[in-house]
Amino acid sequence: MIKLLGLRHSIYSRIVVLACLSALSITFVLWILTDTTISRANQIALERAVDVDMAGLVDIYTSNGLPELQDRIADRIALEPRKGTLTHYMLIGGQGQRLAGDLTRWPDLHASLSQTGKIAVDRNRHAYGRVTQLGPNLRLLVAHEARDLNTLRRQVGFVFFAGGLIIVAAVALTGLIAVRRLATRIERLNTAFRTPDDAALEALSRHLENEDEIGELTRHSANALTRLRRLASANRETTDHVAHEIRTPLMHLDNRLVKTLAATPDPETARRIASARSEIRRIIRMLESLLDIAASQARRGDRHGLVPVDLSEIAQRLGELYADSAEETGHALILDIEPDVVIPGEEMALTRLITNLLDNAFKFVPKGGTITLALEAGPRLTVRDDGPGIPEGQREQVFEKFSRAGQHPEGNGAGLGLTLCRAIAQRHHLEIALVDTPQGACFTVTPETTT
Question: In angstroms, rounded to a whole number, what is the distance separating the alpha carbons of residues 190 and 188?
Fold first, then answer.
């Protein structure tokens, strides 16, 4: 039932199970106490009956002598049903001869001490008895059975068993209904935090009528998420505005430089203008990378907008594209791509992730080096090379902004490529790592590990 209600791995299912076990344990303890009480009460009643019976026979002997005692014992035995006799007697003389009664064997009890204890009626039956010394050569045994006790105990046990099942069923049903409602309310909160879109916030707003603790938490969560969305929206608008205000003057400046070059200046001036244009384009690329990093980090863990993407097809396409460039640059590119590796993601962002890793490898691997692009189910994406690698002292900072691992011959780049790779990976619930290898550098992209 818990599995059908979707609570199999939920804390609510553990609460229901704990409540049922508690009800079952309480019922069991009550049955033990009741059974013990019944047994004790029966034993007390049995002892009292034996004592009363013994006292009556002693009084008969004292008042009327031995013959009368023998007659009364015979009468009492005769009054018992032929099957299921519950009272037993034995009267023996000084030589051990049986004078009256239905028992044939004297128990291991001392008559002089008027001892009591359990005695054997036959091989399968027992009774509680008392022995006493009536005279120097006369001993009396009185024993009673409690045959109805087991029947009573079975009846009481059945009542507790049936009652326990009813109680456990009632607790389970009530608990499941209650925790199902609670789970639904908590799930609205989790949905709103997982995908804080308009639909999720509207669902929270429709259920703010409850005045309990969960209702208060829902109200605060809805307000906090609304404020965060406003802040995030304002931040994006401000960032886009600033980026536009910076990019537009730079583009105008670049156009002016193009017009200046068109006027055929002297070679030195042309060289400086070309260098300035390269610097402008570098600044624009750095600005765009910073915006991409900020956008990916802002949507970290957000599955909204992710659709099934064939990562194998992206890796194969990029691998073939870079293979043509590898021939021109004197590199060897090895592709080991497993087909049909599909993950939820954004195709453009994943393309940017693989492109940056390959660009980074081609940038630092000398001519004649080998680069490997591998993909297997999991997913597990690997970009490995046999270049100079990354110095050990710089490996911890390799994914930080403006960090440059190693020395590139041209000395360009803003040190944002791997930072963007990490931001894209985290957006897709993946993690990128630099793996130790004997030679070169090896980057892996694998699913996030949960802690």
Answer: 6
Single-letter amino acid, residue 332: A
Distance CA(130)–CA(117), nearest Å, equals: 7
- Give rounded-to-5 percent helix, strand, coil for the chain: 55, 15, 25
pTM confidence score? 0.48
Structural domains of the chain in order of their starting residue, each with its CATH number: 11-151 (3.30.450), 210-298 (1.10.287), 307-447 (3.30.565.10)
Of 50, 40, 111, 54, nearest to 86 by C-alpha is 50
Neighbours of 194 (CB within 10 A): 14
| Tens-place pLDDT, residues 311-344 | 999 999 998 888 888 878 888 888 999 999 999 8
CA distance linking residue 355 with residue 284, whole number of Å: 18
pLDDT tens-digit profile of 224-257? 777 776 776 666 666 666 666 676 777 777 777 7
**H or E segment and range at residue 144:** strand 138-144
Q: Give residue 145's Cα distance to chain centre.
A: 56
Residue 268 to residues 221, 274, 275, 281, 406, Cα–Cα distance (Å): 63, 10, 11, 20, 32
